[in-house]
Hints:
Blueprint: E1 6-19, E2 23-30, E3 35-40, E4 59-65, E5 71-80, H1 89-104, H2 115-128, H3 132-149, E6 169-171, E7 176-178, E8 190-191, H4 194-205, H5 208-213, H6 218-236, H7 241-248
Parallel strand pairs: 3-5
Antiparallel strand pairs: 1-2, 1-4, 2-3, 4-5, 6-7, 6-8
Helix pairs in contact: 1-2, 1-3, 1-7, 2-3, 3-4, 3-6
Amino acid sequence: MGSRKSFRTKAIVLDRTVLGEHDLILTLLAQTGEQLRAIAKGVRKARSKLSARCDFFCESDFLVYEGKKLDIISDAASIDPHRGLVASPEKISAAAALCELAALTSFEESADPFLYPILSRALKALEQACDREHLDLVVAAYAFKVLAHGGWRPELGECTVCGDGDPLFISIGAGGLVCGSCAPTLPDAEAVSPTQIAWLRSCIALTFDELLSAGIDPGMALFLLGMAHGWAAARLSVRLKALEFSLRL
């Protein structure tokens, strides 16, 4: 992207950093799946036309010019502000967790057409979610789907250590399900029920529409969110502050 003098791109605002008195540095997920950092000049001024289109979680069509160090946003047209996400602290927290993961799984000058539409759909799913359980489910599903796409799919069919076909435990360190014989050798192995295993598989296999229409109890949703947090933190080797906050909320 940086080689072009100017270009338009649809993008989702993942993060914002204050720059001086009136400007912001935006971290964006572009429609190509590339991560883009650009300066939105004057966006913090009271009458800025860009302000509402550069808010957290917003999808906008940006006009970007090449800068010396960072590109510069000169105009933006709103596509979907995702206003439903500000309806509650729980939805804001869930959306922040999605954008945190999106920022960690996208890269500058590295296109991946999978990343933009799945984040856009997941943000819309959070708006549509009618309770806390489905918020947790959407965040967990997004984490597992994006990480599986990136090559970090958990083994949810057989024992990841010996290949036994009847695993009853899960180990994040080992990479997925493990059997009763291998579990004692793994310090992080914990027992899981067939229902929990089925839900873990569903997080990857089902669409967001299917997940939103599925009945799930609070305990199961919290289990899935905790597993998603552990899996993502281990695979990305980072502390996921927004996702941790969602777990505590």
